[in-house]
Amino acid sequence: MRKVLSIGVLSLGKVMGLSGVLLGAFFGVIYGAVVILASVIGFGGDSGLGSLGVLGGIAIMVGVPIFYGLVSFVFGLLYGMILNIVLGMAGGLEIELE
Known about the structure:
Blueprint: E1 2-4, H1 9-41, H2 53-90, E2 93-95
Antiparallel strand pairs: 1-2
Helix pairs in contact: 1-2
């Protein structure tokens, strides 16, 4: 058994940030496509989902991954700091490596 005594905070932030970008890209493309489709078929008129238009759908496809990535990065940094405190109090985390 090996012990993990601390985690690289920036490293965890980068990994979680990239994971957030990928997750955001998945959801952003789906939601953006729904908005574009609703816009093209005229669903919702002037006040519904279709009111965002094609440019709104594209903005969602670009903005959601950026937002998810930034939020995930920040929470990764916070989680890494908290995890290091807890690992110090608990004496580390035992893992088995091959």
